[in-house]
Fold each of these.
Amino acid sequence: MTGELFRRLRAASGAIWPAYTRHDFVLRLARGDLPEAAFRRYLVQDYLFLLHFARAWGLAIYKSETLAEMRRAQALVAATLEVEIGLHIDYCRGWGLSEAAMAHEPEALETIAYTRFVLDRGLAGDRLDLEVALAPCVVGYAEIAAERMADPATRRDGNPYREWLDMYAGAEYQSLAREAASALDEQFARRGGEGRFAALAGAFATATRLEADFWTMGLAAAR
Amino acid sequence: MTGELFRRLRAASGAIWPAYTRHDFVLRLARGDLPEAAFRRYLVQDYLFLLHFARAWGLAIYKSETLAEMRRAQALVAATLEVEIGLHIDYCRGWGLSEAAMAHEPEALETIAYTRFVLDRGLAGDRLDLEVALAPCVVGYAEIAAERMADPATRRDGNPYREWLDMYAGAEYQSLAREAASALDEQFARRGGEGRFAALAGAFATATRLEADFWTMGLAAAR
Amino acid sequence: MTGELFRRLRAASGAIWPAYTRHDFVLRLARGDLPEAAFRRYLVQDYLFLLHFARAWGLAIYKSETLAEMRRAQALVAATLEVEIGLHIDYCRGWGLSEAAMAHEPEALETIAYTRFVLDRGLAGDRLDLEVALAPCVVGYAEIAAERMADPATRRDGNPYREWLDMYAGAEYQSLAREAASALDEQFARRGGEGRFAALAGAFATATRLEADFWTMGLAAAR
Amino acid sequence: MTGELFRRLRAASGAIWPAYTRHDFVLRLARGDLPEAAFRRYLVQDYLFLLHFARAWGLAIYKSETLAEMRRAQALVAATLEVEIGLHIDYCRGWGLSEAAMAHEPEALETIAYTRFVLDRGLAGDRLDLEVALAPCVVGYAEIAAERMADPATRRDGNPYREWLDMYAGAEYQSLAREAASALDEQFARRGGEGRFAALAGAFATATRLEADFWTMGLAAAR
């Protein structure tokens, strides 16, 4: 069954995982009562995040050992630069945020911490280290959206954040997340071994903590 | 006159610079009324910082183009791993902090943000990018300590933080900082040009902001 | 006028440049009397080269400072992985070389030397260092093919290597090479300065020498 | 018993290993009838090699996960920059080669290939990948010298290369090589697993092949 390494990493992170996936930001977004200022802050920083996300997958191309690995990373860079950033810009425009304004916004401490932590893991270690540090984001967002869509407390009609939930709960993103989890298994078989698990779990937990801090940063804008 | 690039970078960072060098943490440390909890928090995170500082200079060895450049970076790694970390551990012991306890403390968001920002600048760019991102720390600490020691408001007798000020205001550290500033000039002449200034100033300002956040993190422990 | 930095680098490399662009391998290919064994050896190693070429542009994505820079590097990775490698495989099949056979061939000393030299320049330096090390290949191939197609000594009818010349002399590749040369100028303005020229010229000359060695490796297969 | 991974890698490289350790260059050096021009060529390129060897261990500092790992890498950089390069320069002076002359000599194709291959393995992979690529050099030289000193065909008296054999067969270097082999075991336990063996063995074999090419380059100077 695929996703085995991801499940072990998630289990090893203990309470850190739900503190991220069931963060107040997420629960309020699902209920539709997240302050708009919090969401706008999140959207702007998520735009800045995407630039480094594309850099991380560019690095993954460099770190590939097979043509298949290279092509998967290249598809993710292309999806980010050609599709996601565009969709994000369109979506943000609907929230009154222009691309120029977002590009000039300084990166928040939390954005810097998560993105550069990921890049350093990827450069100091190998591609498995890089993908493990990215997993709380790539795989976690799929879990967050699916879990919230399955929750009766989630407001479906008239929820201003419904589009966000639909995107990450949708078949396309869920499938991308499953592929990312499978890739972790494949790499752990090829480059891992039990001896590596502790260090990978440590990095996964730190990355998850930094993702939770990202939500907190959003909420802080509404205080 | 040496230190020209550093002075230009500092000037370009505007109010961000004194927000770091005259941060409340620093002023209270100099007056001797910084809460001990704030200083202890700082010491623990500074220990974790030093490990990444040594990694950054290791990276500088890799990125060197001349034997002289390599030797300067190697001397800084050696000083960090063989002297500074030892002194830091001794000093912290005096504040009731054991090395084992510090090594097990999780890195604060602010520690992760500054250290990984520096490493990413160094890996994405060249050695000048790396050293510019390190300058607010390496050169800035010398300025902070010298400025405070020259300030009549600074308490010299019975100040529990006097040793910290003496170390960074001392001849040895001041000389190390001057060499670091000179190295910036030399590299800017050899690898720079006016076209690079804007990007270097942007990275310097971000690094300075992250250093100020590091002080804020210390203070937060005393709230 | 664009291509200024490339022209200066080429001029600074002196006799090293024509030793590459007018190498016996090239002249005989144009005359149509290059031994087939030499061309086959070249084709196989060029396939292995392309994998590292894609890695180099993946690294360029990571090293990008703007969205535009990222997109240009991403387009080159995509072109390499989605188009060029496929065309190369088709073309090689016409020469009796299967993809599986090429993928199992050991990399020649000359292939390792050039590809890893480029990657190290890119990692030790910045994106300009990376693109300068790639320029003898990217821009040089366009010059080689154009120069040979303009040479009356070149055999056009019945030349078994005509397709190779047509591809690199064609409008599409010539345009890609011009863009690469323009990108050098843009980066030299933004990240360079006269102080950098000597080191860039040194790396360009070494990369050119390694490209000439690549032709020599091809010829050696026919001895 | 230590050195297990090294022994497995050596066994997996098959005939590639003795083609390096019992290369004609080595056998003639031991018999004392290696042409001096071959040895001089080797010495000059070995000087250029050492600069990249120091860079590789600088990179290892950056890639360290523990203070102990950092200290071992730092000790090797220090030994290279503060001791080995100096000894090498002194030794070369005895052979009529000045440091200035060596520093201006262009790097041979073989020097570039091996050094940059190692650095790329280290950057694309993790520290284990880096140390495996360095092992044919670090551990191999100890084996080469010990094997030759145990061989009755080796000329001990009046052999102009005796000092070279004594240095690498000496207790100090043999101990350094044993530590390097132990470090491989420790890292394979901590970061490896059987799944990684095939790729590590592939890189080890390529690095060994490139080391043999380095001897061949030396011999070629005497043709």
Amino acid sequence: MSAHVELSRLSLNQATTQNWGMAETIEGCARAGVGWIGLWRHKVSELGLAETARRLSGAGIQVSSLCRGGFFPAASAEVRQQRIDENLRAVDEAVELGAPVLVLVCGPSPDRDLDAARRMVEDGIYKVLPYALDRGLRLAIEPLHPMYAGDRSVVVTLAQANAMAERIASPGVGVAVDVYHVWWDPDVYLEIARAGRNIVGFHVSDWLVPPPDHLLGRGMLGDGVIELRRLRQAVDAAGYGGPIEVEIFNQQIWDTPGEQVLALVKERFLSEVL
Amino acid sequence: MSAHVELSRLSLNQATTQNWGMAETIEGCARAGVGWIGLWRHKVSELGLAETARRLSGAGIQVSSLCRGGFFPAASAEVRQQRIDENLRAVDEAVELGAPVLVLVCGPSPDRDLDAARRMVEDGIYKVLPYALDRGLRLAIEPLHPMYAGDRSVVVTLAQANAMAERIASPGVGVAVDVYHVWWDPDVYLEIARAGRNIVGFHVSDWLVPPPDHLLGRGMLGDGVIELRRLRQAVDAAGYGGPIEVEIFNQQIWDTPGEQVLALVKERFLSEVL
């Protein structure tokens, strides 16, 4: 295969080039021949929905997903409803941007009751689902690494996300597999196979040893210990053939010019992931 | 129950009072009426085995466990054998100290092959087991939090530790349940029940939000989000009736005088764990 074909699944999640604005990200990807972008709502708001969509289309770039919905658990019914409303707005934005998938970071518990928070997540998804289904959008339950169980997500394993997606059993709900969040799991290959066609997103980065930071410690592809190729092959074997988002939260990478980051991402995507 | 009876299961893991030497720890526990200590090998070496054992006995303090054996995976057979030899020495030390349990921190992988590293752990335990069994010592497989999968332990869930203990199926091997490592797991109550009589140690601390540090970020009982009482009740219901070690790696707590730490540990043990 030519590098062009091989890079055809590469998507730049714009969290990787945090210091690029929305316009720069589109221009940078166009120059680098990267045909997909994973968008974040706060970045999109820089240009607005219509203008972002127009520029993406003009550059021939597709949207792999929009980050993020979720954050369902809250202490009161009123706040939980506000979170649902926010998710409905995120659905609208995803649709206007042409994103096929809205990634859900499910949210932490408002107190010590993990079981209740997990029920709130599932309830929240049920409430957003009809609205998403009507618009042809898929919601991706993304299990986060268990080190985020207290501050980001009570959904922490692929088994848990799979079970939730299976209970909901709708074409509007799938799971996102992010290697950084699931690589450590003794059941990860089993659960990827189980997820099968429910996989609606695949994200790559690397796990540095030791981890330099709680939130900004992800590594460039190949700089850490994750079996990237094996995981990519497993996801492919499960039936996923869509874009692969490179999503690296790392201060050092953020401080590097976007052009350089994207060049290295392309190189490492070929050598470490494919 | 009187506070005396209620505190009868409290064990101070000496990692909690890192700035106390071995002698101070024994004296401090004796003054505070704490009847158990969880020992660390490097602390024991300050006084030596015989003298530490003599002072513990003189103070009427029992040893709940010795930390730590393990670190089985290594790149070469030679180094793996050195690790086994080190574990045999740890067994000898545990026996001389009267510790009923040697806690195993299983070790990280020497490369990207997690499966192979996990096999090395199990092989290592099989090699140490006869020596421990002959001496009436139990080895405790301690699953560590998945955030330590790269630098401390390829054993990261209670399900994984349980499966390993069940395969080995020996009275000389059990599991240690540390709430800090397992609290996030959607299957934790199921796996505690499954572990049953294989539970040979129970450790408590708390999970702070957000976590202040990779290694030294554990919280004082009650300062975080872990359902401590519920987990203690589950472990009790599974059949564990032994000492409960308070093990808190936290720089701020280390910088606090040991007397104060121990007083607070006693108070919080009563209000948060029992």
Amino acid sequence: MSGVAGASDAARIGPDRLSLNQATVKHLSLAEAVALCVRHDIPAIGLWRDRVAEAGLAEAAATVRAAGLRVSSLCRGGFFTVAEPDARRAALADNLAALAEAAELGADTLVLVSGGLPPGQRDLGLARRMIADAIGSLVPEARRLGVRLGIEPVHPMFCADRSVIASLGEAIDLAAQFPADAVGVVVDTYHVWWDARLAVDIARASGRIVGFQVCDWVLPLPRDIMLGRGHVGDGVIDFGPVSAAVTAAGYHGYVEVEIFNADVWAAPADQTATKVRERFAAIC
Amino acid sequence: MSGVAGASDAARIGPDRLSLNQATVKHLSLAEAVALCVRHDIPAIGLWRDRVAEAGLAEAAATVRAAGLRVSSLCRGGFFTVAEPDARRAALADNLAALAEAAELGADTLVLVSGGLPPGQRDLGLARRMIADAIGSLVPEARRLGVRLGIEPVHPMFCADRSVIASLGEAIDLAAQFPADAVGVVVDTYHVWWDARLAVDIARASGRIVGFQVCDWVLPLPRDIMLGRGHVGDGVIDFGPVSAAVTAAGYHGYVEVEIFNADVWAAPADQTATKVRERFAAIC
């Protein structure tokens, strides 16, 4: 794709709001990803629980703090759509643990990928009620810890197996059932760019946006459709209007670049970080 | 997936409303597909233009008529999102030709797959205006011929390359710009099953539903994501509520089974037709 879809000056988001989501440099340890951010003057990082656990929670928190980085989010909680009582209790316990980790790391938001259809089930309504119920049971602890739960609508192609919350409008309707200081939505361009209601729904999300993630939709999709995401500017998403709408809706937090892509993971991390910064400056 | 998601008696759709979309038996000629429907007591067929052209339009119409079959739809028109003037004129001419073919075949509906982003463009709004403009220019001929244009919302994973009309709600908003006797929507379970607004939007489509297609969402998606569709009952879609909603919205036309799947195509056609009938009776 030639040409670059830039943002208007009014909507431009400065480099002080850039965050590198750890998934973009999947093969780095937490300490390596933190050092990469420092080398490239990226002020914030989105952390993943597996890499935090590998480093040790206290050590991870200390590493990030010593580097002077902010933690824009912790990825992730969710996967609430389990019916069997023991599995359900385990899922809730795991989410409570994730909230505690987010608090210790000083993360603004715990990102939730809600879960697909329960095994053997076809009832989307049931799955959605299970999610609402689970989020409700997490709200008191989220408020106590001062960590917001960020419901991330996930692209409808993942509805069956990853998240029945498949549009921003639906995520807002769900979040609105809970206090705004505890539950919001995370806007990820990859998941929502196609939606004819996007501008209306972002406006409707005013005061509820607790995270903003960017990457591009690149064709063709690879064999593993989880990994079809590209650097901002490599695909078809028009980032300018989305960024402007998110800003107009009152979101002034970090913008995470989160790219699941085998080629990006195979590239040298410094090259990836350079490209992330350049594209962010040019397009967001 | 064990168990079968059946329809309640109230919503049950009889075998007199079954139609076999030709794409389900992709490797058959039109004459072979017609003969298959007759052998299996399937009263209607959804035709594809390439197979009609191969047979010859007059011959195809005569073959279908002689067999006593109804033509539930002709697939397909659309692909309106071309900017270059010659290409745009060619697209409109092709759609006018498709309307004439639909009329000669006695098809109820010409199914429209609207088109993705124009090459090199990221502007979804532009693409959507191009589609509205093209449909508007086809309406007079559609009314004159008595063929309805059926806007098919296509799954959002095809938004970039096949159809920027990616949700039923959006298709209804588009159709509503035109007279109801000329423009409606086609509901295909594969494309819309994930949508939290589906029940509301089907109700809103009352009087505008001009086609209903069924197949199932089966995981994992294959390498070619066009071909991930399965026999009704093989996947995760809960057909009962969708059928009931479509019926409640006043649609009493044929229900086409349309399956893009390499394994289904490789199976003996009589086996496929038998399975289509059995699953339709059990589930729709």
